[in-house]
Amino acid sequence: MKAQAYCKDRAIPWLIRSGAWVLSMVFLFAFRVPAEAAVTVSVLLLLGAVGAEVWIYLRNKRFYNGLLANLEGLDQKYLLPEMLEEPDFTEGRIVYEVLRETDKSMCERIAEYRRENADFREYIELWVHEIKLPVASLQLMCHNDGQAKYAEQLRRVDDCVENVLYYARSGSAEKDYLIKPVSLSRAFADIAIRSRAELQQRGISLRTENLGVSVLTDGKWLVFILGQLMGNSMKYGAKEIAVTAEDFPDRTVLRFRDDGIGISESDLPYIFEKSFTGENGHASGRATGMGLYLVKKLCGKLGHGVTANSEKGKYTEIVLTFGKNEMYKMP
């Protein structure tokens, strides 16, 4: 709270007081009060008024400067009322009560939205588990009847349903994962086996290197991430997928590279944004813009880094970085 701003704000009250003083002097001289007495009264009134203003300014300055300092120091601004002490003057108490009531109302509304979100998430998870049963049954029937083309479409339906489940859980992934050493070769093998039929149908070859290393992550979420990358490679014209790992003292780097149609330079900065499809998505008509968004979001939850490199018409490479710590041990 600056003195200049405070004085500017108090200009009108001081003008009113000045007008009242002028009228008082007129009446005093009209009643033939000695000039010495009028001057003495004027000085006393001025000293009292200045003292009162200084005291009010210092009191307000202490409160409002503390208010602004607490606000600036908080990452979560809504916690501001919890950091304040109730002031001892009327204006400050009004501000204090307004902030507390506003915070209370906001917390109640957030709690309401959280309950609604939790109910919706619970319903989605239940629906996914229910729908997976008939899909699995249809896949088995197609396998028994030799209907490979229908089985492949059902596998895609199953993948889409699984994406819905992982998206619903991604908002609270930290409650649903277990961090431990996970073999990259085992995680990638799970995805390769699941995608084997489509890989053979599209004539896509796989090449791996140094996947014998383990990384600290959640195995289930890692398989999902690799599945998204595999699906993108198959969708966008890859003929070879190369997956290599580099192990360093402080991190492990996994490179997932394909020789598909690539990503344009203008689209590359935005591929991890929600619902972004870009040139390739518009051309294929099948992209949702959710796959790489989920990859980025889950990597953030798990503490992994993810970046992308690409050249249009030549290749696309997604780089995952897994950190290590002093507790890390190879299994």
Describe the structure.
The protein has ten helices and seven strands. The protein is elongated, with a radius of gyration of 34 Å. The two termini are 60 Å apart. It has two domains: 3-105, no CATH class; 179-323, Histidine kinase-like ATPase, C-terminal domain (Heat Shock Protein 90, 2-Layer Sandwich), CATH 3.30.565. A hairpin with a 3-residue loop joins strand 4 (240-247) and strand 5. Residues 326-331 have low confidence and may be disordered. Helix 4 (90-145) packs antiparallel against helix 5 (148-170), helix 5 (148-170) packs across helix 10 (291-302) and helix 6 (184-194) packs across helix 8. The chain has helices spanning 3-9, 11-30, 35-73, 90-145, 148-170, 184-194, 196-202, 219-235, 278-284, 291-302; strands at 180-183, 205-209, 214-217, 240-247, 251-258, 305-311, 315-323. The protein is an alpha+beta fold. It has a five-stranded mixed sheet with strand order 2-4-5-7-6, with helices on one face. The chain has a two-stranded antiparallel ribbon with strand order 1-3.
Structural class based on helices, strands and sheet pairing: alpha+beta
Using only C-alpha atoms, the radius of gyration works out to 34 Å
Give the integer mean of the pLDDT values.
81
Number of DSSP strand runs: 7
Sketch the major β-sheet.
5 strands, mixed
Sheet with the most strands: spatial strand order:
2-4-5-7-6
Distance between the termini: 60 Å
Q: Looking at CATH, which topology of the largest domain would you report? A: Heat Shock Protein 90
- Name of the CATH class of the largest domain: Alpha Beta
Unreliable sequence segments: 326-331
Count of discrete alpha- or pi-helical segments spanning 4 or more residues? 10
CATH superfamily of the largest domain: Histidine kinase-like ATPase, C-terminal domain
* H/E topology pattern: HHHHHEHHEEHEEHHEE
Percent range of helical residues: 55-70%
Number of domains: 2
Determine the strand fraction and express it as a percent band.
5-15%
Give the oligomeric state. single chain
CATH architecture of the largest domain: 2-Layer Sandwich
The global form is elongated
